[in-house]
């Protein structure tokens, strides 16, 4: 269980509000496990592989704390030296 400043949520992945070396894709509506959202894919700026997504809008008020935050799929990330 993770605590967010707005609510207590049960999430497998933490949300973040800043990121670097990425490109945001176009917004699209998707049905996620927590409901309908407008999200955009996040891509690596080097190889353009999808590494996560950003929440632009949540239709449910209880999910609004996610707006403007993003999820990174750690198994898709690579450390570059």
Main attributes?
42% strand; 0% helix; mainly beta; disordered N terminus; five-stranded antiparallel beta sheet; 7 strands; two-stranded antiparallel ribbon; elongated; 81 residues
Mean pLDDT: 79
Strand content: 35-45%
- How many domains? The number is 1
Order of helices and strands: EEEEEEE
Counted by DSSP, the helix tally is 0
Rg, rounded, reads: 13 Å
**Category by helix and strand content:** mainly beta
Largest sheet: 5 strands, antiparallel
- Taking pLDDT < 50 over at least 5 consecutive residues as the criterion, the unreliable ranges are 1-11
Count of distinct strands? 7
Question: How much helix is in the residues?
Answer: under 10%
Alpha carbon gap, first and last residue: 33 Å
Shape: elongated
GO molecular function, one term: metal ion binding
Protein name: Protein yippee-like
Keywords: Metal-binding, Zinc
InterPro entries: Yippee (IPR034751), Yippee/Mis18/Cereblon (IPR004910), Yippee_fam (IPR039058)
If you had to describe this structure to a student in words, what would you say it looks like?
This protein has no helices and seven strands. The chain is an all-beta fold and 81 residues long. It has one domain (2-76). Strand 5 and strand 6 (50-58) form a beta hairpin. The protein is elongated and about 40 Å long.
